[in-house]
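I am writing to request your help with a piece of structural work I have in hand. Thank you for your consideration; the sequence and its tokens are set out here:
=====
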Amino acid sequence: MSLRPIAGPSRRLILPCTRSHSTASRPTPSHAYAVPPPLPSRPGPPPPPPPRTEATSSRPNLTPDQHDLIARIVRVDQAGELGANWIYRGQKWGSAVRGDKKTAKEVEGMWASERHHLAVMKLVQQQHRVRPTLLYPLWQAMAFGLGAGTALMGREAAMACTEAVETVIGEHYDDQLRALKPLLESTASTAVSPINPNADTVADADAVTPPHPSLPLLASVLEEFRDDELEHLDIAVEGGAQKAPGHSLLSAVIGFGCKAAIKVCERV
């Protein structure tokens, strides 16, 4: 297990890292949506996709507040994956302009992962009938500009951008998983008391209703994507992110922008 430093304007955390950079050969929760993994583990055609199930083709019966929570999670994550795709697109372009083939190749590997994330989140958005963000064109332009601009500044600046973005995204996925936790708990059904039919209903210990299967799957997908983003953070740190000129200021500005974008996309 390695330790991952996370730099921020006011704190520095150490998070455990238990995954390797190459996990394409492992079955992943997102594969339940019949989207092939981003990097095939062996030559030849990919394995046939799994059949669609209740977990991937239906949506739960939720209260308005619960549906609002799912909608905010899915909307902002889909927008975030779109932004990540355009950041890496810009970084690859900027690295290629500088003739930095090494960085362009590393960026392409991370970009492949983000394309997979976006394909899955589009299906999740359709499944849960969530309106996508209305700011797609704006995020595309801003994300490409951020990626291209930092890549043109040099390898370290591009990696500092990735470090700052993935730090915020990793923390945000953790916040979402905590918010989802109450929806993942089985609930006891209620029944009329056999002793006093006029009394309030009581919990029936033998009648436990598990959560709709789409909800544990959504949580597992978020965990998978969070771990992927933290792998990108590892790559960025190992690639010299903290050696970038003005690293602290650059990280603070990009991190603030990411947090602001998250708040806006949850609603708009």
Observations:
- DSSP finds seven helices and four strands in the chain.
- Residues 5-25, 189-193 have pLDDT under 50 and may be disordered.
- The beta strands are 2-7, 12-17, 187-191, 202-209.
